[in-house]
Structures are given as C-alpha cells and as structure tokens.
Design brief:
alpha+beta; OB fold (Dihydrolipoamide Acetyltransferase, E2P); 2 domains; 2 helices; exoribonuclease II activity
Length: 180
C-alpha cells in the first residue's frame, strides 16, 4: 500500500470542536503534561474552570490564528536549520565514493527523493541520474513507482545505496545518485 505525503497535513488550531481526521474522533483537544505548549495551557485553564464549575469564556479566535502562524514559522525555521546542518555535514562526501543506505520516500516527474538511513537527511536524485533516455522513464506518483522500459525499477519504501553527487549550500539541498 502507498500513502502519499500530500495527505499528511498539519493540524489546524481552532476554537471549534472539529473531528480529528487521523484518529477518527468526532472532537479532539491536545494534552501534554507537563504543560509545554501555549495551546495546552489554554486547554488546562478551560478544563480547570469546568472542574471547578466556573463559567468559561471561549478563547479569542485571534489567539488561534497567532498560534497557528507561530507554529508554521517554527516548523519552517526548524526545517531550514536542519537542512543547513545536513548540507554542511554531507558536503565533504560530495563527489566521493562514500555510499549511504537510503529509503525512497517520494517519486515525481523530476526524479526521486530519498532519506539517508544513517542520519535522516533528505536528498534528491534527478531523473538524468536514473536513466539516460528520458522517454524510457515513467514516474508514477500515484503508485509510487518508477518504470524504466516498462519495468518497475524503483518503488517508494525501497532501500537503495546512493552517493552524494553535490551539496548546494546556498539552497541547503543535497543531490544524490544511485551507487554504482
């Protein structure tokens, strides 16, 4: 079975009771202990008021908008720093014979994305590195496969050996190729 990453979206913060798609619940509120997030603090205060029998006021929708925006910015910053660290770590291995085991995580028209098992870095393998005749390549994002001359050669979740072809520090991207 293949599940596209496009179905995996981030949770939306709201003051309305809404279903949780992944868990199949009619309503859902996050809860962690000790309190680590602002949303948890809001939930804690609401639950505490309910337990005490106090009247509660619905949190302002502007607060959830701010929380969602901050969460998005935090994810972007975390991703950027992670990409920079991976690029910096992997740059000495560019254009060498050092092999890395990698799991194929995505297939698109332009090539494939893999996650290095050793450290979690994501690398892109461009189509020309996979086969020299572009017309003989059939990429299927729906089935998660790459066919060469009609035969499935790569499938999402396959583990393959790759080498690092190039590291582009300005874009914090890692380009790999299948190991010979």
């Amino acid at each position: 079975m293949f599940i596209s990453s496009s179905f995996q979206t981030y949770a939306e913060i709201t003051t309305e009771l809404v279903p949780h798609f992944g868990l199949g619940l009619e309503a859902y509120a996050t809860w962690t202990s000790p309190i680590r997030k602002f949303g948890d603090m809001i939930n804690h205060r609401l639950l505490k008021a309910i337990v005490r029998g106090e009247s509660i006021a619905r949190p302002d929708d502007a607060v959830t908008v701010t929380m969602s925006e901050r969460r998005r910015l935090n994810r972007m910053a975390e991703r950027d720093v992670g990409d920079w660290l991976y690029a910096r770590y992997l740059s000495p291995f560019a254009a060498t014979d050092r092999k890395f085991s990698a799991e194929l995580i995505d297939i698109s028209r332009g090539g494939m994305r893999v996650r290095l098992l050793e450290n979690g870095a994501v690398a892109f393998i461009p189509a020309p590195f996979l086969h020299s005749v572009r017309d003989e390549l059939v990429f299927s994002q729906e089935s998660g496969t790459l066919q060469i001359k009609g035969e499935v050669v790569y499938r999402v979740t396959d583990v393959i050996d790759v080498t690092i072809a190039e590291v582009r520090m300005e874009t914090r991207s890692v380009v790999a190729r299948p190991a010979a």
